[in-house]
Write the structure tokens for this entry.
Amino acid sequence: MSKNDKIPTGSIEIRVERIEVLNESKLPPFTIEDNTDGGDDLRMKYRYLDLRRTPVRESLQLRHKMAQQTRAYLDGRNFIEVETPVLIKSTPEGARDFVVPSRVNNGEFYALPQSPQTFKAIADGLRLRQILSDRKMFP
């Protein structure tokens, strides 16, 4: 029996008397380790595997903590958080729209918002002076 001092449960030993393989798995397309051999394209294609890596998990945890601290700071200064929509009706302001086809209404499209000033004007109309606009970002 051997112990692994690098993990909290490393001193627990289990003796296996019988094992049955229920389903064999394929080798992952890249090593799921801190320093992986997968390039960016491969890691993004298999994002669900990449999320298992410690640096990615730590980045997600840091983002979470930063968002919490930002919200707490702004909440303490009477800001109101407003989540603006991801899809809106296209507006003729002249900006180039990123168009998304509607699955429900055949032949119709939605646009990714290019004009946050539209939502700022709505907030002004509601007399909301201090707002935190939570926007989703698309690469």
